[in-house]
Amino acid sequence: MALSQIFAIIENNMEITPAEIEKLASLSRMKISDAEKASFAKEIGSILNYVNQIKEVVADTKRSTTPSDYPHRNVMREDVSNREVLENPADVVASAPASQDGFVKVKKILN
Amino acid sequence: MQNLTIEKAQEMMNSGELTSEKLVNYYIENIKSKNKDIYAYLEVFDDALDMAKLADKERASSNDKVALLKQKPLLGIPCAVKDNIVIAGKIASASSKILEKYVAPHNAAVIIKLRDAGAIFIGRTNMDEFAMGGSTENSAFGVTKNPIDLTRVAGGSSGGSAAAVAMDGALIALGSDTGGSIRQPASYCGVVGLKPTYGSVSRHGLMAMGSSLDVIGPITNSVRDAEIVFNIIKGDEKTGSVHDSNALTNSEYEKLKNDKDRSKIKIGVIPELFNIGGIDEEVIKNFNSSIEKFKNAGYEIVDVSLPLLKYSLAVYYVVMPAEVSSNMGRFDGVKFGSKIEGASLLEDYLKTRGELLGKEVRRRIMLGTYVLSSGYHDAYYNKANSVRDLLRADFKKAFEKVDVILTPTVPSPAFKIGQNSDDPIKMYLEDIFTVTANLVGVPAISIPSGKADGLPLGLQFMAPHAREDILFTLGKKFEEIR
Fold first, then answer.
1. What DSSP character marks residue B184?
2. What pLDDT, in 10s, does the model give residues B179-198?
């Protein structure tokens, strides 16, 4: 039995627990209150129940997911100053939450 | 001034009957009196009048107004901009607390193109936070109300842009559409909304939500105006100064069209559509009467089968949150906007994202994290992409038979504020007719098709890739016969 079929059986009635929400929140780097954990668990469970219907469709998940009709190319430009787009580097630095002497300020991560 | 169009305004400005300054003033006065109730605008730009005066000067000093307008078709035309499209030196908040004070250091490609075409940016409009939602109820700064009925939503996520045009607060507006965010509010507010072909308009300077779905498009009073704006913003050809564009070039766009002769437009309808359930009686009645009108005007109506259509919404609610969870990673309290200070870098992230991102945004980030996590990736994300491929193939086949497919834009007229807010599934079902065009990448337009109990309804037209021309031709016809 393929893994996806096993998942399909397990997940026919999705229940997401507050503990799983906590795990998802931690993976997503977001702190979430206990009250919100319960409501997120209910809502995300009901959304997963709804989207589970895609499992009814017979489709090969190894297929290419590239829309073949679309022209694909890398977006390149010459390595030259582009002042229209980046009028003033100081503005970019200023739009960060914290800056000092023209640098973006971040917390020390090594002790 | 009501029911003004771009061409009519240009005619009046050329003859001296109107000036851009007067036009901007007219809209600013309207905004002053209506915006406190409707809340379409987050901010009206204080330099709009100065820009209008400059446009008037430019026109007055030109000896060849025809040539001037050919070069600058939007000279002096006031345009509202959705708050997720950046304008250099202006705040771009995406209606989120995390970007409440963020000042954009550069212009979006569409802004450069519109500015070079002479448009006046009049203000930035309210939206669902980071374009996630269908009612603007997810804005961190307040709900945009429907100008036709203040107890109802204006739709979303481009609710502010649709309401701005509908309340006579701008002649044209820009929105963005990931799953219906231009067409649905346009339908709710009784205006025209165009979602162009995926990739035809540069996304440079649009805050990314679902990168395989997102597209910028116009909201206007008429199909002709949507056509004018689309022709200006499309493509990546440098209009003087656009760089770093990621849009299809004109030749790529032309190549996307297949060479099938589509000069005699054949209309497709999807019989399965009405088996989905939950569609308002009035919406079905209105849709059938629109089809009848096309029949009477001599168009051939053909049934097309799209058996996978009923899975569109489920596919969308896997693909979109997956892309959202990835795109939203950049908002970490280091690079842009605001942050909440913690004891460590990790705590900075947790607090900043946990407290400054709204509930719907966090819900979608977690849903995306779930469908992408190891063990579920195959069952959800890969599976959804495979079904998306099949759906694309279905559409390709359907467009061998017909040149345009019609559906209602939304299953019901604008709902009451608060009505769907505690049931995400009910809210998501509003997108059922619109998400497919985003998944498949085809262009679609919503055009007002009548009213139910005084509330506007919209008719959605979908055409093959790069065939916006069919939407415009048939859309203008519909404006005559509706």
1. H
2. 999 999 999 999 999 999 99
Q: Which residues contact B169 (CB under 8 A, 6 or more apart)?
A: B27, B30, B31, B34, B35, B40, B41, B80, B122, B163
pTM, two decimal places: 0.94
Question: A-chain residues within 8 Å CB-CB of B252?
Answer: 71
Q: Which CATH class is domain B6-255?
A: alpha beta
Give pLDDT tens digits for B117-169. 999 999 999 999 999 999 999 999 999 999 999 999 999 999 999 999 999 99
**Interatomic CA distance for residues B269 and B253, integer angstroms:** 26
Q: Which helix (H) or strand (E) holds B150?
A: strand B149-153
Q: Note the ipTM here.
A: 0.90
Dihedral sign, CA of A53, A57, A58, A59? negative
Q: What is the CA radius of gyration of chain B?
A: 21
- List CB contacts (< 8 A) between B385 and chain A: 61, 65
In single-letter form, the type of residue at position B268 comes to G
Residues 40-79 in A contacting B (C-alpha not used; CB under 8 Å):
40, 43-44, 46-48, 50-57, 59-61, 63-65, 67, 69-71, 75, 77
Q: How far is B445 from B414, CA to CA, in rounded Å? A: 18
Complete DSSP assignment for B156-168: SSSHHHHHHHHTT
CA–CA dist B42, B33 (Å, integer):
14
Q: Which of B339, B349, B389 sits opposite A65 (nearest CB)?
A: B389
Residue pair B295/B301 in contact by the 8 Å Cβ criterion: yes
Q: Do B366 and A28 touch (CB under 8 A)?
A: yes
